[in-house]
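Shipment paperwork, digital attachment
Item: protein structure file
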Amino acid sequence: MDQTKIGRFIQSSRKQINMTQKELADKLGVSDKLISKWETGNGMPDISILNELCSTLNISVNELLSGETLPPEKYSEKAEENIMELLKKNNTNKKAYIIQLIAGIVFFIAAILLMAVTTYGAEPRLVNNYIDGPSLVIVVALIFASVLIAGTKTVKGVFTTIRKTAIPVGVLTMVFEMIGLFYSADTLVILLVGLAVAVIPLLYALGIFMIALLVEIKLNKEA
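Attachment content:
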């Protein structure tokens, strides 16, 4: 499917019914910026609003995906082409998701192993380890693994997944660290200091959560 061709067709169909981008956006419940993205070929309408969009523009879904008005003799031919292309795209997406899922699991396992090594290592240097980089690496790796496993495909979806997983990941890392302290700390002072330091992963997670939330709000305003 040619996104540029589809975009031009959306634009011409909109103009034929004397509708502005703002009016079409209001009708569909989206922003006029999103309509502009479609018409310039920088994006495609979501499948959830395809029927409503086509109904508003007085075109068929087949014509929209073809990017042109179809005479009766070409309609079935184009329909088959569009179906085959959608099936190919679906198969490609499935393969990409499997690779993404495997990568996510690998990242998750690597993060857990790193957390185990830094927490239950032979030498209990928990304070030094967690004031430096490992806790941040662990939190980021777990969140990244969650994004890969979730299979999100849009920028907004990625930041939504990050927002939803950041706090649970921070809590998980903090609890794991605290359990390690009780296992390896040999004095009360090390235990108390270590418990305070164990909060750092949660602070990292809170920071990531706030960044993801702000980006998500910005993307919602632009949508």
